[in-house]
């Protein structure tokens, strides 16, 4: 795609992710202006063809779409608040990882300043940007999404989740929750086999195969959760699950390791059994998270 088919884009923030995004935009022929708080992090992207701006305000003037890819919600406000006037009338895409309510707050802030706001959740690490497997979830202004869709698609698959600016972050954070609890489980498991001298590297391929096989049952779990009926189809009841989890905690204790990653789900199961739902399906554990 040639430059004439893309609107100019500004990238605020040249950390690992900002640099990957800017490089990929330049490669896709998008006229790209970049800025970073700490000078000197733009050498590679400037060599690739990006224009470096000395200040965030100057950078904003270079793009129709301004992408903020900063550390966190506070750094977004620290960067954008002083240049709200320059941003007025522009389109803003926040690709910083912010919690759903923070994304909604940012959308309100943008509306007050006459800025059209789109939020995004990046489901990729920097090395994946622009390659197969990179995916970015978007919500907020559909006008911004559609206007810049070709540029956004150069970064990874681009999916619009709706006009609620918190939705992309909600999906993003839900997926990250699944990821981190999986990693926590792996850390506990690796510590457990490690007590018998098994290196984590030897255990990892087997763990990956097992977790992948189990992940294929998620749609069945989801179907039961969505039905709200935890007694019609019971593959594994809560009493059985409690005894399995108690045994796993015992094994950790015997091996001299703690079982915090497992304790999260074990506590939910314990509470459901204590509340008299022992014959219900394991999937009923989600109700403990909802306070039921
Ligand atoms: N890296 C990853 O794998 C993940 C993948 C999923 C999405 N995340 C999120 O993307 C945001 C940026 O991540 P990053 O990898 O670029 O992060 P860093 O390399 O640590 O760079 C942080 C940039 O933020 C700038 N910055 C920090 N505080 C401020 C501030 N108060 N004012 C202005 N800029 C600030 C920092 O600038 P400097 O330290 O170089 O001056 C970097 O440009 C993030 O939300 C991830 O969760 C990435």
UniProtKB/TrEMBL annotation:
The UniProt transmembrane annotation reads none
Q: What is the superkingdom listed in this entry's lineage?
A: Bacteria
By its UniProt entry, which InterPro entries does this protein fall under?
6PGD_dom2, 6PGDH_NADP-bd, HIBADH-related, HIBADH-related_NP60_sf, NAD(P)-bd_dom_sf, RedAm-like_C
Q: Where is the NADPH-dependent reductive aminase-like C-terminal domain?
A: 164-290
Any GO molecular function: DNA binding
Database matches in Gene3D superfamilies: N-(1-d-carboxylethyl)-l-norvaline Dehydrogenase, domain 2, NAD(P)-binding Rossmann-like Domain
Q: Which PANTHER family match?
A: CYTOKINE-LIKE NUCLEAR FACTOR N-PAC, OXIDOREDUCTASE GLYR1-RELATED
Record's protein name? NAD(P)-dependent oxidoreductase
Q: Which organism is it from?
A: Nocardia terrae
